[in-house]
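Action item from last week, closing it out:
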Amino acid sequence: MRIVIQRVKRGKVSVGGETVGEIGVGLLLYIGIGKGDGERDLRYMAEKVPGLRIFPDENDKMNLSLLDFGGEILAISQFTLYGDCRKGRRPGFSDSLEPVAAEAMYLDLVERWRAMGIATKTGVFQEDMLVESVNWGPATFLLDSEKNF
């Protein structure tokens, strides 16, 4: 599983001109689920993301987690995180998990964060979405459950 994490002042996702998810300060997450991902990957990401100390403390140092800071999550499904661009000019997506299983895992991950008391909003799986954000920092991080980066 791969997640691009952006610390944001605000974020919004729209489908067909209608806002379907919106947050204030928190994390905008682009979530990609790959073949072979399972419970271990879900558990790792569910705990790792809200525990990352990437919010400023009273000395303006990245020392507080989302849980400490009290922010929200905007979770966007993003199969293109498994796009392989090494050959040719068109990305290949053979490492992405098939949509039905990927959606189930994505929704499971969202529910885990909600169960932790984190206000978590989403886009719409497999829809053409417009995502707007104000990246705070800017601060953008890459996370891979296989720890490839």
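Closing note: The helical segments are 39-51, 66-69, 99-115.
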